[in-house]
Design brief:
Length: about 650
């Protein structure tokens, strides 16, 4: 009752309340309107509710609430009917939103995923250019290539589309042995290559160009002149802190070094034998020692702090040997009866031990500490089949290196045809662990040069093949002009040095290797004079040169479709290797290479669902191909001559679901 009386009072309320409602809407509303409002409100109340004790549940037709004051409206709106109606409306809206949300989430989940287009890191997007420092460019005329020489040619590297530079070892080494693998101090720049200030200048110049720098890291051994080894050799006494830095034994095993000698050499000073999987002047570190592990981590941190972008871990498979020093057994793969040969044995006690993977994982964790602003990477060389290579990417859910070098093509010569190329590529890509990234080593300092392994036609076909499949290409200096092994047969040089010839920059003295005003000493390795007919300067001038072809390939490779797109083989037979690169919403590409000597015509349109009939020629292996860039081409019939290749493209066409 009290409630009803209060409502009645409210309904007859004073004019002040009404005016305040007007004020809220319009300060200019006229008095007559206000009177009308009051009249209508009063009338409505009287007609509908005034005579009854409780108001009806529903209002009359017309505009029953028009002109009501705020409190009156609130009173009506709190009635069960309106309350329920309101709850119902809100529920319908909420349920609608919920249904919409569920639909959107479901669509996102069931629809084919569009991956993040920027998911690739710099080392996946870029082509790596490997430099053998002493042979690249000599800036001061002492006959030895140096860091300043590398810096002076960064634009050349960048111009061919390679944005990561990987340097051969640059650390202070033992000149008596003259091997950059005989490191005496890992934190000092080899003086014939320059000094720390030269290094910092090079690194700065690399980064200023948006490029990256990777250094070699050799953890398996040091020089026997390294202070650690000198200290370790003094005695096996417990008070010698360095006694376990290397592997020492009283009783040698039957292990052979890779150079066919015994892996053990006696130290008369310590009266024990030390292990060396390579030269006697390269004693193997004991990586099971926590002190050695810490020292190696210090080296990595030292260079990471300077800003290097990663490391190429050399000879990583040799890092650990059998803990119990057990003899090795005869390999089942050899007919050799010579027990002094390295190849006579199955090296399960000295190569690729599981501890290698553990160590790589630890270093991966370390480099990731420095990966806040830019990702720092690890590369490693691996000997053996894919079963040996793939664990380098990770072992027991722990990440390994970013790039386990894929050197399958390095031993190959001209005979690797379409089935051979297909096998190498599809085997690698199919056995690559999830979320890992492939790579294609095109040349290296311990392999015959690309230009010596294949003829130019094959090389053009090969480069088109491996630069456009998923994975980071790794080229070796000089490959861009098809340098061949240096002819040093009349000199007392090792065979490997023929693979490390002076870079042929131009047709001047020593091929422009010495860029100083006056060269005081002849180059450390004699030039064979091939620079007269084959050098960078002349090659760049010719539109049809391999250097310009390579630049076109690296440019095309940076198209998003090639960086992030799917790879699917199209026609692959005894002559043809072809594949499609595609990504939702982006231009699609078909790459075709004829790895036979004969002309081949195929219908590619029916070989893959995405290929369009009408396509455009993007690139060919050379002007001997009967199609030219920007030509229209019918994919139902494409003819290529021997060792010719072509890339065709079409605009993305959305397919019906
Ligand atoms: Ca020099
Ligand atoms: Ca070792």
């Amino acid at each position: 009752m009290e409630k009803r009386i209060r409502r009645a009072n409210g309904s007859q309320g004073d004019g002040l309340d009404k005016m305040s409602i007007y004020s809220g809407r319009s300060s200019t509303r006229s008095k007559p309107d206000a009177d009308t409002f009051e009249k209508e409100e009063q009338s409505t109340y009287d007609d509908n509710y005034g005579a009854v004790e409780e108001p009806p549940e529903t209002p009359a037709l017309g505009s029953p609430f028009r002109g009501m004051e705020k409190e009156e409206l609130l009173r009506h709106s709190s009635k069960p009917f309106w309350w329920r109606l309101r709850v119902m409306c809100i529920s319908v809206v909420l349920l609608g939103w919920l249904a919409l949300l569920i639909t959107v989430v479901a669509l996102v989940l069931i629809y084919p995923r569009c991956r993040d287009q920027d998911m690739r890191s710099w080392w996946q997007n870029e082509t790596i250019y490997r430099v053998y420092v002493p042979s690249f460019s000599d800036s001061d005329g002492d006959g030895i290539g140096d860091l300043k020489g590398v810096e002076s040619h960064l634009d050349h590297i960048r111009n061919i589309g390679a944005h990561t530079v990987s340097l051969s070892p640059i650390y202070k080494f033992d000149h008596d042995v003259d091997s950059d693998f005989n490191i005496i101090d890992h934190m000092t720049i080899e003086k014939s290559y320059g000094n720390m200030s030269d290094f910092e200048s090079l690194l700065k110049a690399v980064h200023e160009r948006g490029m990256h720098l990777v250094l070699d890291f050799i953890p398996n051994h040091t020089s026997d002149k390294h202070q650690w080894f000198i200290n370790s050799s003094t005695s096996s006494d417990r008070d010698n802190d360095y006694r376990n830095f290397y592997l020492w034994t009283d009783i040698p095993t039957n292990w052979r070094s890779v150079y066919d000698n015994s892996s053990w050499t006696n130290s008369s000073q310590r009266n024990q034998n030390y292990l060396h999987q390579f030269l006697p002047s390269q004693p193997d570190l004991n990586l099971r020692s926590s002190q050695v592990q810490e020292k190696l981590e210090d080296i990595l941190r030292f260079w990471l702090s300077k800003g290097v972008d990663g490391f190429y871990i050399r000879n990583s498979g040799y890092m650990f040997e059998d803990y119990d020093l057990r003899d090795e057994k005869k390999s089942g793969d050899t007919n050799s009866t010579d027990t002094t040969e390295y190849s006579y044995y199955d090296h399960i006690m000295t190569y690729g031990l599981p501890e290698v993977y553990d160590m790589l994982s630890r270093w991966r964790t370390l480099v990731e500490e420095y990966s806040n602003t830019t990702e720092r990477i690890l590369m490693a060389d691996v000997r053996g089949g894919l079963d040996k290579v793939m664990p380098y990417y990770g072992h027991y859910d722990r990440d390994g290196v970013h790039i386990a070098l894929n050197e399958v093509f390095l031993p190959e010569h001209d005979i690797c045809g379409a089935p051979c190329v297909r096998k190498y590529i599809t085997d690698w890509l199919s056995q690559l662990p999830d979320h890992q990234w492939a790579n294609w080593v095109i040349g290296a300092d311990d392999s015959d040069r690309l230009g010596s392994r294949f003829n130019e036609s094959y090389i053009r076909a090969f480069l088109m093949t491996v630069l456009l499949v998923p994975g980071t290409p790794i080229i070796y200096y000089g490959d861009e002009i098809l340098m061949t092994n240096t002819d040093i047969s009349s000199e007392p040089w090792e065979r490997e040095q023929s693979m490390r010839g002076l870079m042929q920059w131009e047709n001047t003295t020593d091929g422009g290797f010495c860029s100083a005003g006056s060269c005081t000493k002849p180059p450390w390795l004699p030039s064979d004079g091939k620079f007269r007919t084959n050098n960078v300067k002349d090659n760049i001038k010719s539109a049809e040169s391999v250097i310009n072809y390579l630049r076109n390939l690296t440019t095309l490779r940076r198209e998003l479709t090639f960086l992030v797109g799917e790879f699917t083989t199209a026609i692959t037979d005894d002559s043809i290797f072809s594949y499609v690169r595609e990504f939702d919403g982006l231009t699609g590409y078909l790459v075709i290479i004829n790895f036979s000597h004969e002309e081949q015509t195929r219908d590619y349109y029916t070989s893959h669902g995405s290929i369009e009939k009408a396509a455009t020629v993007e690139l060919t292996t050379g002007n001997d191909v009967s199609y030219y860039p920007e030509d229209d081409i019918d994919t139902r019939s494409i003819t290529l001559g021997g060792y010719q290749g072509i890339v065709v493209s079409w605009d993305y066409v959305a397919k019906e679901l």
